[in-house]
Amino acid sequence: MILDKYIVVADKVKAIVEIKRESGEFVPIYNLNFPKLEKGTLALLEDIKERVVTELKIMPHELLDPKAMEQLKEKFFEKCVELLKKELPKMKKEKGEFLASLLVHEMLGLGRIELLIADGELEEIVINGSKEPVWVYHKKYGWLKTNIYVQSEAEIANYASAIGRRVGRQITTLHPLLDAHLTTGDRVNATLFPISTSGNTLTIRRFRRKPWTITDFINNNTLSSEIAALLWLSIQYEMNMIISGGTASGKTSLLNSLMSFIPANQRIISIEDTRELTLPEFLHWVPLTTREPNPEGKGEISMLDLLVNSLRMRPDRIIVGEIRRSREAEVLFEAMHTGHSVYATLHADTAEQTYRRLVNPPISVPEPLLDALDLIVVMFRDRRRGIRRLYEVAEIISSAEGVKIKSEVRVLFRWKPNVDKIVKFEKSLKLMERLKTFTGMSDEEIEKDLKEKQMILEWMVKNNVNTVNAIGYVVSRYYLEPKEVLKIVKSNEKATDIIPKHYLEG
């Protein structure tokens, strides 16, 4: 029984995907229908591959720089097309480009895995060894077996080595683990036998090519425009925030979407293990990434190194990919106390659990430092229904009991699964007081400001303003000309009339 059918395209290579249930199989099959090549064609491709590699020299920097890599692919593609025309002058242009793209995938990519990477419906691509099929995690159908096999363990190891070289890392029998990323931004983890006893493995977490935005989240009911307006106000006026949640719950995606609310006249430093954040191009942003040590154990740049260094770069805002260790957390909270606005993610399922993880080992943040944290936002992934939701918005209230500091987690909003709605839980004490202190606004003025922001967000949703740059443009313009933007929103003008076309497209 066929569950789904669609086309995927990687460069000039096109294939039909069929997702179907087969008797005797406990999971659906992801069938990649790929045009079969005759033996003579395969032999010709092997010959052309050798000639292209011989004739075109690859410089090391071309493999490390994503832009140079794209130019290199183009150069290889053109050379392959040229040689195919010489050998088969009567071949149709489409067939020649298809075969040339195949060759480029094999020489500079991951072969047929490139088609899986090009499938926007997939979140994970997993190779568990050469003896079993490649597995994929589909957004709609979950884990699926594919009809694709990698020919040998050596081929998997070669893929891992090639990926590692592009980011200056090595994977060997002495160092059999690799955490890296592709030029597309997709994260890659690799392990070598005998650490993985069934064979060499490769796990590719495929990132969305167009980053999630706050309007996407409102549109798909991940959060409401009311919550988004509150988070916008908090970001605008430099409230500190931690976004927590389980694995693949959308923590980083939400963090990324909220960064469009930072004013354009502030300096942002982001610190990550692997580049995942994408901010509006006109923001004053310096992205930093960690570096693993070389095989001799030298040259490591840790998150703590970057965090300490970032404080010397005059940041207004500091974004940290994930809090893991005590010293990182301590420096982060010290940064909050010295007037920097800080945003970070943390693995925890609830606001209460976030608090407990922060104050207990291995993170162990001293209770007095927690007062600088203004908001905890928790994301949740409902695996049964295949949805992600903002689960809680909470604040930590600290009070003194003698010489001890007692902290209480106060949940402001919580998602109710039975009605799939985020409801108000308790009235804010700390956040609202801080907003009034930092802005000089009264309760009525804050309420009016929130309503205006909610109106702008709903206008953007209605007008399909769903790119990082377009949302950043509207927000930045609102900060400069609030009355003008509100006039546009109230008169319901089209987004295409006021937002530059290139921002709406990406």
Report on this model:
It is built from 18 helices and 18 strands. With 506 residues, the protein is an alpha/beta fold. It folds into three domains: 35-111; 115-209, Beta-Lactamase; 214-242 and 250-345 and 368-375 and 430-505, Rossmann fold (3-Layer(aba) Sandwich). Strands 1-2-3-6-5-4-9-8-7 form a nine-stranded mixed β-sheet. A nine-stranded mixed β-sheet has the order 12-11-13-14-10-15-16-17-18, with helices on both faces. The chain is globular, with a radius of gyration of 25 Å. The two termini are 38 Å apart. The model has no long low-confidence stretch (mean pLDDT 90).
Could you name the CATH topology of the largest domain? Rossmann fold
Order of neighbouring strands in the sheet with most strands = 1-2-3-6-5-4-9-8-7
CATH architecture of the largest domain: 3-Layer(aba) Sandwich
Describe the sheet with the most strands. 9 strands, mixed
Q: How many strands appear in the DSSP assignment?
A: 18
CATH superfamily descriptor of the largest domain: P-loop containing nucleotide triphosphate hydrolases
Question: How much is the radius of gyration in Å?
Answer: 25 Å
Mean pLDDT over all positions: 90
> Based on helices, strands and strand pairing, what is the structural class?
alpha/beta
Distance between the termini: 38 Å
Tell me the number of helical segments per DSSP (H or I, 4 or more residues long).
18
CATH class label of the largest domain:
Alpha Beta
Helix share, percent:
25-40%
As a percent range, the share of strand residues is 15-25%
Overall body shape: globular
